């Protein structure tokens, strides 16, 4: 049977491109893509109860994420950081961030309650 007819259920190996057959895709088919919709939420997990606002799913290169982080921190008047492609801001700023991202042309959704 051809390789494309099998669907992997679970694997500990790195994903292989179906077009070029390599882990480090050279054909460009598996380029950087969004990991889903852009979400603005609040988390306290692993922070000793301190709440942070997180923005996930932004499909931007790291340089643009850093520039956006800087602009957001200036607008919010708070500290923040970039961790693994996720923007984190100190405090509760979901509504303000949603309005700021909308002004910048980025459609985002509020996550959580």
Automatic annotation (TrEMBL):
Keywords: Initiation factor, Protein biosynthesis, Translation regulation. It comes from Desulfomicrobium baculatum (strain DSM 4028 / VKM B-1378 / X). GO terms for biological process: regulation of translation. Pfam families: SUI1. GO terms for molecular function: translation initiation factor activity. It comes from the Bacteria. Residues 42-105 form the SUI1 domain. This is Translation initiation factor SUI1. SUPFAM superfamilies: eIF1-like (SSF55159). InterPro entries: SUI1, SUI1_arc_bac, SUI1_dom_sf. Gene3D superfamilies: SUI1-like domain (3.30.780.10).
């Amino acid at each position: 049977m051809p390789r494309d007819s099998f669907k992997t259920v679970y694997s500990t190996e790195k994903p292989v491109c179906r077009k070029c057959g390599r882990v480090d895709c050279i054909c460009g088919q598996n380029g950087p893509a969004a990991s889903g919709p852009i979400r603005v939420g609040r988390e306290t997990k692993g922070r000793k109860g301190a709440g942070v606002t997180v923005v996930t799913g932004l499909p931007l290169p790291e340089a643009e994420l850093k520039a956006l982080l800087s602009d957001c921190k200036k607008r919010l008047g708070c500290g923040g950081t970039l961790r693994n492609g996720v923007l984190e801001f100190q405090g509760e700023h979901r509504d303000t961030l949603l309005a700021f991202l909308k002004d910048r042309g980025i459609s985002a959704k509020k996550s959580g309650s």
